[in-house]
């Protein structure tokens, strides 16, 4: 869905399906390590306008709700927090209803590596709300790019409550795996 949402609306965003097509859950620290290696070692950085390659800094982009879980004792290991926030850092997108100040107070040891992106326009659209709207057969038009609705959600019956044994998450992984297999064989 993210790939469809960005391919027609952005010239600078790219979506990589690596994490989503893994058979098992991948810890955030491992995902960041993967992209650090792929971008800066395998690809030797990114191409600049002048044609040379430049090593880039990998940083986690997260909503304030995720950061709030990082400040909750017992949810994240100290080792993972050190690795994610110490080595990579994070851009936090403020979200309505999340107390970012409390979360940041607990994450003070890494404050130099945490940047908050203020929410200038209130927008509380989330994947949870999209799923709820669709489950209630309510329209998500104008909340989700039209190609995502047609080319992904509707065509794959992603959020339909059909009583099938596979969950929404499993359906999504199946579709991503098929899409990744198709794109790797067509290129």
Key phrases:
single chain, 187 residues, mainly alpha, three-stranded parallel beta sheet, two-stranded antiparallel ribbon, 8 helices, 44% helix, disordered C terminus
Descriptive notes:
It is a single chain. With 187 residues, this protein is mainly α. It is 44% helix and 9% strand. It contains 8 helices and 5 strands; from the N terminus they run ααβββααβαβααα. The protein has helices spanning 2-7, 28-42, 64-70, 78-88, 100-106, 127-135, 146-154, 168-186; strands spanning 46-47, 53-54, 60-63, 90-93, 114-117. The chain has a 3-stranded parallel sheet with strand order 3-4-5. Strand 1 and strand 2 (53-54) form a beta hairpin. Helix 3 runs parallel beside helix 5. The longest helix is centred in the last third of the chain and has 19 residues, at 168-186. The protein is globular, with a radius of gyration of 18 Å. Mean pLDDT is 83; it is low at 162-169 and 183-187.
């Amino acid at each position: 869905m993210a790939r469809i949402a960005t391919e027609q609306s952005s010239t600078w965003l790219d979506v990589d399906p690596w994490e989503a097509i893994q058979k098992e859950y991948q810890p955030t620290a491992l995902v960041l390590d993967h992209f650090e290696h792929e971008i800066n070692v395998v690809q030797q950085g990114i191409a600049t306008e002048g044609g040379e390659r430049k090593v880039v800094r990998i940083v986690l982009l997260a909503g304030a709700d995720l950061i709030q879980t990082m400040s909750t004792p017992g949810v994240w290991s100290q080792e993972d927090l050190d690795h994610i926030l110490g080595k990579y850092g994070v851009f936090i997108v403020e979200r309505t209803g999340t107390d970012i100040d409390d979360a940041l107070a607990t994450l003070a040891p890494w404050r130099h590596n945490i940047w908050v992106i203020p929410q200038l326009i209130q927008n509380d659209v989330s994947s949870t709300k999209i799923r709820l709207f669709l489950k209630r057969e309510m329209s998500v038009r104008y909340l989700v790019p039209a190609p995502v609705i047609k080319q992904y959600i509707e065509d794959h019956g992603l959020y339909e409550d059909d009583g099938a044994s596979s969950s929404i998450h499993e359906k999504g992984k199946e579709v991503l795996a098929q899409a990744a297999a198709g794109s790797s064989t067509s290129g």
